[in-house]
Request: fold
Amino acid sequence: MDLTQQSEESVQFMYESITRKLRMATGGSIKAGLLKEEAFEDLKDLYDIVMSKSNFSISEIDAITSELGKLRKV
Reply:
């Protein structure tokens, strides 16, 4: 899958990978249409950070969760 191209599949894949790795329970998923247009690169950056680490502190999980929330359209 090409994660450099914004598509509903790539957004969904990155979001689900992040939530799975952080073992987060989510009420809903981010779809490409619900993502701010300028936020795709931010989601990709979060994805790269999360996938590169094996452990997370509680404060890191809080920060990542907060950033995920900021990426959604209001």
Summary: Residues 8-71 form one domain. The CA atoms of residues 21 and 32 lie 20 Å apart. The first helix runs from residue 8 to 21.
